[in-house]
Write a structure and sequence with these properties.
The protein has one domain: 3-Layer(aba) Sandwich (Dihydrofolate Reductase, subunit A), CATH 3.40.430. It is an alpha/beta fold. Strands 4-3-2-5-1-6-8-7 form an 8-stranded mixed β-sheet, sandwiched between helices. The longest helix is centred in the N-terminal third of the chain and has 13 residues. The chain has 5 helices and 8 strands.
Length: 201
């Protein structure tokens, strides 16, 4: 399977708690919910389209806990997104075995990198990672991400967990798609291209 990450970030690279004020307050983060005022129908369709392509979802433990408390019993007006999240098989990365109460969820074992390699070796379409900041760091550092869909919003927060944290392996990415949205978000898709080249200008 191809592994794709879909993430929402600010101009300064923060990806923490885009969806709600109390979504993720780890580290004293108090600026959650920054995505909502910049949402529009076109961006929503771009996000949903990636879910329609996915054969399965891969979630970090924190994302699982947040989503499992909401999506199984989400109101009908959240359709079609409710079905796009609930229907596919979901794999959970966690160092310890979690109690998975959400239907269709499976633990991939304590070693996320090994578990993901096994998943990627299976036949199928696209394995989609939404959110899951800590998991994404592991996947990027292990060169397991095939494609990045980064939706950047025109806001600067100055603090919070970032998509690319210090210490990751250097990597090169090929831009394969880019489009701006009505309220200023920019959707860009990048394909992993190995190690960057260096030189003088």
């Amino acid at each position: 399977m191809k592994l794709t990450v879909q993430t929402f970030i600010t101009l300064d690279g923060v990806m923490q708690a885009p969806g709600g004020v109390d979504e993720d307050t780890e580290g004293g983060f108090d600026l959650g919910g920054w995505q909502a005022p910049l949402a529009d129908e076109e961006t929503g369709e771009v996000i949903a389209d990636r879910y329609r392509r996915a054969s399965a979802l891969l979630l970090g433990r924190r994302t699982y806990d947040i989503w499992a408390s909401y999506w199984p019993d989400a109101p009908e007006e959240t359709e079609p997104f409710k079905s796009l999240v609930n229907d596919p098989p979901k794999y959970v990365a966690s160092r310890s075995e979690p109690e998975l109460t959400w239907a269709g969820c499976h633990w991939i074992g304590p070693d996320a990198a090994s578990g993901v390699r096994e998943l990627k070796a299976q036949p199928g379409g696209e394995l989609l990672v939404p959110g899951s900041a800590n998991l994404i760091q592991t996947l990027l550092d292990e060169d397991l991400v095939d494609e990045l869909q980064v939706i950047t919003y025109p806001v600067v927060l100055g603090k919070g967990r970032r998509l690319f944290e210090s210490g990751l392996n250097a990597s090169a990415w090929e831009l394969v798609e880019c489009a701006s949205m009505p309220k200023g978000a920019v959707n860009c898709v990048y394909r992993f291209a190995g190690r960057p080249e260096f030189g003088d200008l």
